[in-house]
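Quick one:
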Amino acid sequence: MVITLFNPFKDGISIHLPPLDFTPGKPVGIHYEIQKAVLSTDPSIHPDSDVVVVIYSVYCNLAFYKSWEKIWIYLDKKLSLITVIVFYRNLVYVIRHYNNVLSFDVNEGSESPKWKTVVPEDLRLEAYSHRAYIVESSNGYLCSIHGKLEFNKGPIDAYFTANFKVCKLILDDANGDLIEKKEVKSLDGDMVFVGDNGTIAVSALEFPQGHPNCIYFTDDFIDVDPYQPFGPRDIGIFNVKDGSFGNHYQFKPSHKDLPPYIWIQPPVEFK
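Output:
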């Protein structure tokens, strides 16, 4: 499996990575062998010091590539069902469906690093998140976001987002250990964008046309049952403060066969 990273905002710059070595699993639903790829830095600015972390295979395992070593390093395959990756304070943080957060250091050497549990797994059924995200706020702290769906059973099953819970993670500056995890009803003025490709937080002060303390979400529940024949209709805005929903995009039936929607964060200088 060969990966090519392409930046449409930087004169079409491409980065060609060596092949990933793994055995593809049995496809389930709408399936991608490479689920996500996240960069540690802008490679156009730091071409020789960037790290790429990918979620790969139907089991959502982890591997990373360091530009100065030119090889892929694979984490233990017991670490699976990863949904989101974020670089934060020189560590990589990931989150899984049962809301547990783990971290590891890509600079430990050429061997597969050991991961550390930041937030332990909660196996209670009510603790399960159909969608789990982690993001760095514009104020510099981590938040975990947990999405719940409701399902309408019928001749054709349908689902929609019923709620989001946001937790602020207060970490020790020295070792990254969790000091406190607390549910919050504010994003401190941020707008958070979640979906199939990545999670982004920006201050509403920089984008006054947006809604502060809101989560903008796209339809990314494609793990088992594709969102056919309806198309990706679970799209909207969730207000963290009052729990209300709004719209940011009017779905067009002609788009029902398109791939999942993604968020794009252009560089600051892009107009």
